[in-house]
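User: Structure tokens for both sequences below?

Assistant:
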Amino acid sequence: MIKANKPYPIAGGIVKCAGKSAGLDKLLIALILRSLYNFNMNIKRIPVPLMGAALTAALFLFPAALPAQDWKKDSGTAAERFRQTIDSLLDQSCQDGLRVGAKFYSLDRNKVLYSRNSDTLFTPASNMKMFTSAMALKKVGPDYRFHTRLYTNGQIRGGVLKGNLYIKGFGDPSLVTEQMWILVNELKNLPIIRVQGNIIADNSYFEGEGRLKTWKPYRGPEAYLAPVGALSFNFNTVTVHIEPGPTVGSPPLVVVDPNLDYFRVVNRAVTTARKKRRRPLIVTRRGRRGHDEILIKGTLPKYVARKKYYLNVTRPTQYTATAFKKYLEQAGVRVTGKIVQGEVPAHAKLLLDHESPPLADILRGLNKFSNNFMAEQILIALAAQFHGEPGTTENGVLLLQEYMQGLGYAVNQYRMVDGSGLSKENLVTPDQIVSLLQDAHEDLSIFPEFISALGVMGLDGSVVDRMHHSKEAQRIRVKTGTLNHVSALSGYYQSLDGERFAFSILLNDLKCSNGTAMKLEDRMMEIALQFHREEGEEDVAPELQWGGGILKRD
């Protein structure tokens, strides 16, 4: 609280607040300072240090009182005011044990604008996906394709394949409905109208299938917990559509997409009247032998709109093979055998080699929508390619370590255990994230694809609903990160005068909600967007210099 008649030494001057009030009104101080700035008072009688001190005090104490465009007119450099404003904002927000790490780095000047605990380790959540993306682009390039191959141990005669049809996955993270139809149509056009044999699914390119060992705390059916597998389909998820039944007391209508024999629906829910007290609707998935059971229970009021639920599956290989067989039959290719799991024999003949969309396209889905499954698939698939089959997460982490070594970091300076950031065991620093962003920015062979995969603030992906009130927000390209008690936002932005920055904000040990934390991040970015330098100013305080990674001490 600012007290009356007490002197306050600020920015080289003294501020004394006259009057009986123990506090200051934001609007009053803003008006007084505006008057000072517009020379509506006789400034010759006011010492310049005092005027600068008053302006600085107002901005520090009431950052919202002055328009952002007036910062450059205040005393001191714009960089100093930026640091004061961000520090003040962080000191007032989400307190009670909040750990904050942040860094704002000018790519145009190769200088640090702001740094707070930037060399301290934090849980990055889905900001880990940027490390996986950059590593993959560096290792294989933006046009890299993943493969799904079809083989046979028989012969094609008169449109009939006499023998088994093998489908082998090589970790394609983008084998979705559309791509499956392309694969099936390519096979049909060989031409094949009937398969006299079994469909044998080969997932041996990965070491097994399922969730990562470091995901043990997470056991739910949610789509973001989808398991990995060399042969996977639709991100190893299923969509369940539910709407009220035709009459009160009837079960809700349920549609499963894709509609496969792999799923069994148990519908114990009831449609209720509008005013009747109801139990919440629960839609979950339970793994059974050879299939997944979708359980629906609770009540659904007659008046509600159709609902959509996304669930993961428990057996990726079986799920994918079942979808493959179903789509073959829908395309007019009859299969007389059954689905089994096995490996392609050495003497088998290659029928088709289906390629995924390019890695650059895949990364857009990965980062804009923060798809955990895609990140882990890419990591393990590249591990198999560069460290030998079968691919493992552990060997994928070796690839990340190789990339970090290229940035100048030793293994003991961070901790990485997966490619998606779902595990809280991952630990990196804001310095390291900014090093990654700078490294990508300086490599034209990957930068266009890397930055285009990030979310455009207020426009798409996981940030479509953030800062959407401001068109200027589209000058921010970011990757989000969210876990319980963790929020992160990192990427690139362009300030008011066109200067380009890389930045990282990591918030750990949140006691406030993730929504409140996101608002704090957004407010920081609103301030960053309006940053405008004064001519000839120095922008790096000595204590903010840092010599680790690829950002070298000047």
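Moving on to the next sequence.
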Amino acid sequence: MTRHPGKLGSKKSIVSIGLIGILLVVGVWGVLGGTFRGVNANNASQASTSGIALTAPVSPNIAVDYTSPIRKLDPIAIGMDVSAYGYPNVFANDQVEQQKLKTLVIKYMRMALKYSTTGDPTSKIVCDANGCDTRWTGDQWINAIKGIGAEPVVKVYTKSSVDAANMVKHFNKDTNNYIKYWIVGNEPNINGYSVQSYSSYFNQDYDAMKAVDPTIKIGGGTTAWYDQYWLQQFLQLSGTRVDFVDFHGYAQQGTVPGNYTTLFEKARYDNSINQLRSLIQNIVPARASQIGIEVGEWELNWGGTAQDNINFHAVWAASALGHILSSGGWSLFYADKGNAIYANLHTFTDPYGHVVNINPDDTDAAYHGIGMFTGEGLFRGFGDTIVNASTTLPNVEVYASDNPQNIVVINKDPSITQTATVSLNGVTSGTVEVMRKDESVLFPNPPIKLGILPLQNGTFTYQLTPFSVTTFVLNTDPSQTSPTLSPSPSVTLSPTLSPSPSVTPSPTLSPSPSVTPSPTPGATLAQDTFHRANQTHWGIASDGQIWSGDANSSQVFSIAGNGGQLANGNTSYSAVLGPTATNAQVLFSGSMSSFNNTNLGAVLRWTNGNNWYKAYIDGTNLVVQKRVNGVYTILKQVPFAATAGTSYTLLFSAVGSTLSAKVWQTGTPEPGTWMVTATDSTFQAGYCGLRILVQNGAVAQITAFTALAQ
């Protein structure tokens, strides 16, 4: 978004807390995790481990599986936009800011550049934002980005393919100041462009820029919010070209405090990423695995909110970043000066009456929310591989990594301290360093180290204070090894690189996905009890994996009454969960309110909505069917009378070329033999899931789902 510096400047002051450590010495950490809602003035001190650790765990409520890697993160997945504001000290010349962003381990930075005279490639390249600091050349901005170890992504003007191509030539050919990532335009959906005109300009820019250097990656879309219809049309018009799709999102506008629950829901950028990935797969399936997704701007508000200058901002930012990373997106926090780093002098009074003096280049609360993942120079940062992690605690999120092993736990509840009992699979012994950012720490101050816990028998217990982000840094026995994932392909911004790509809600489209490594026979690939709060979409399954296909993009899907529901539909819908597999079976229980041109079934070797095997009941028959490139073929069927509103359990198996199915009323004995068996070798591997035809007012209710390797 092209910002006006007045708004951005008025939003923040800049943090100088030199006095605060002397000013506020609050002496008492509550027993069991420091529940006192004040300020721990000595951020460098370590709290006594005996005062924070609890006794032996009772029943685990957080599970982390280090034997189940989900995805490999790109090294530049955590990024930030350059605002180009903060005169006279902006990112290009502010060495203090540069060092703080380097310490934060920011690896990807967007910079808007233009020729000072449109159409004249000999004119000075300057920043392209309303009121930005044009004293500095494009090369100075780019060199500052590279100087902190980050990869630049340059935004170019939409309407001039000549200028766009000349800028690529300047950096990549004439000066050898190579830039790999480029993006066309900024928020065209609110800046006077129709999607048709923007896409036409994008295609012209793309072709001209690639003609200069075909090795670059060019992104587009850049909508001011997740404008699904707009992005869908953009993909239809430019999907054969675009290398990554970008959208922006801010939780609120203005200075009126927002509802905490609503704001945390708006931090769920993963929902939009999942929906966008589904669009990409449906519209350009041949290129889907090559098109990345980035949230190109995200924050509570680009111009300031009433809740920026409190600890909640750190908790919210950590939640937002966790959702982006876990869904395979790239993150560009908006922005450096004015949001992560204060630009002006200010004095704030926090909710507890503490006076906080802010100086230019002091850090904002959101800086530390990001820092709870990166370590911000205080502790070892998040690893390069996300592993399966789940929790049954309300208002708690958990994100876990391997290589190295860190666990980030977020308590979003503003008033309740919760006891976390963590169970680790694949790790048994070692120590756990505990870092926390919560209400006991002044909002612009960094997290504090609370102590080191022993890790015994793969478990430990700890208290999560209200509105807190706690990072557990695991130091384990080197002999305890975890599975490794393949390196990230350079062609995609959001790779699906694991034996369990289920966290990517829209699997890579190919007629027969490869399975590397093959799941162990008998291993549980995916499982969902659907026992969670009512919500739109199916979200995260009880095993911690994210539902894919249509389950997190179509409004037909919801969680209602501890069941997965499909209602108000008018076609067939897919829901897939877990990694790809060759030989597998799906077992599910569910009911259909009406068998009137509807059916209820499981899918195996699913690659997209047009390619799968399915076993289903339609009220009259049990059917085994395949769909190949959109063409349906019934492989075999047997009579089976199903009653509307009655729960049935269906088991569908694929081993080699043999497809088998059986069905029975839930709660009655399972048939001893397969009721229908067919042979087909069209598909060798794919995802496990459900495919349900709901229309004519019918409602489908799913109460249990399990996928097993065979």
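User: Anything stand out in the second?

Assistant: Residues 5-69+385-476 form a domain with the Immunoglobulin-like fold (CATH 2.60.40.1180).
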